TrEMBL record:
It catalyses: a 2'-deoxyribonucleoside 5'-diphosphate + [thioredoxin]-disulfide + H2O = a ribonucleoside 5'-diphosphate + [thioredoxin]-dithiol. It comes from Pseudoxanthomonas taiwanensis. Residues 49-162 form the TSCPD domain. One of its GO terms (biological process) is DNA biosynthetic process. This is ribonucleoside-diphosphate reductase. GO terms for molecular function: nucleotide binding; ribonucleoside-diphosphate reductase activity, thioredoxin disulfide as acceptor. It holds the Pfam family TSCPD. It is an enzyme of class 1 (oxidoreductase). Keywords: DNA synthesis, Nucleotide-binding. InterPro entries: TSCPD_dom. Belongs to the ribonucleoside diphosphate reductase class-2 family. Its EC number is 1.17.4.1. It comes from the Bacteria.
């Protein structure tokens, strides 16, 4: 709708949603639902550390280190006891008997803790850490999952923790996808049994899932579960398939 202005414009101002909210009458404010009046606490740098925090400790056993590494992630619970209750990472500690990585581990934990306490969307840390590659080469951890570096495995631990507290939601495979993977697996085992006379030895991974030892790494899920079937590369873990 066009509006004709007959007078000279002497000034202007942009009305924001906050300005409109302040202009509401008391009656209009009373009509708003109770949820809108709740004082929801968001994560920010001014939140003081409570005396007690809940957390989890994860063990990393990498072939790049002589001793195991233990990653502890402590969480703060915001709006406890309300429908807006939220658990967020607050600080991280990494401990190990190996001292050759001490300096950069301390620096990494302090930076990560500072990012956690700043608030906002902190899930970006996972992708940034998992994208770090070791120039000497990566390794396969228990379960046949490829880790390009030690930092990447720490990022995988942070991702696992964020999934457990609900910050990251991993889309589950549909029943059709699971059935397709199970069928492909059955076909592969039957073919191996016919060709070799016996079924190929199955290696059980750290997650309780078994894949053939001859499987190669899948570029989609970074797991050693890719087998060749009927001229197509098929992943028995995520269902990825490529022919030709």
């Amino acid at each position: 709708m066009a509006v004709k202005i007959d007078k000279k414009i002497k000034g202007y101002a942009v009305i924001t949603p906050e300005d409109k909210a302040r202009e509401q009458t008391p009656a209009q404010a009373a009509d708003r639902p109770a949820e809108a009046k709740d004082n929801v606490i968001q994560m920010h740098e001014r939140i003081e550390r409570p005396e007690v925090l809940v957390g989890c400790t994860y063990k990393i056993k990498s072939p790049l280190m002589e001793h195991a590494m233990y990653v502890t992630i402590n969480d703060i619970v915001l709006n406890a006891g309300t429908e807006h209750e939220l658990r967020r990472p607050f600080e991280v500690f990494i401990n190990s008997k190996s001292m050759e990585h001490f300096q950069w581990i301390v620096a990494l934990t302090r930076i990560m803790s500072a990012v956690f306490r700043k608030g906002g969307d902190v899930t970006f840390l996972v992708e940034e850490m998992k994208a770090v590659f070791d120039p000497r080469g990566g390794y396969f951890k228990a379960g046949g999952v490829y880790m390009p570096s030690l930092v990447a495995e720490i990022g995988a631990v942070v991702e696992e923790h964020m999934k457990s507290i609900g910050l990251i939601h991993d889309p589950e495979m549909s029943a059709h996808q699971k059935a397709l993977i199970a069928e492909k697996r059955r076909q592969y085992e039957e073919r191996s049994r016919k060709e070799a006379g016996t079924a190929e030895d199955i290696a059980v991974t750290g997650d309780g899932t078994s894949f053939p030892p001859s499987a190669t790494m899948c570029h989609k899920c970074s797991t050693k579960a890719l087998v060749i079937m009927d001229g197509c590369a098929t992943c028995l873990n995520c269902g990825y398939s490529k022919c030709g």
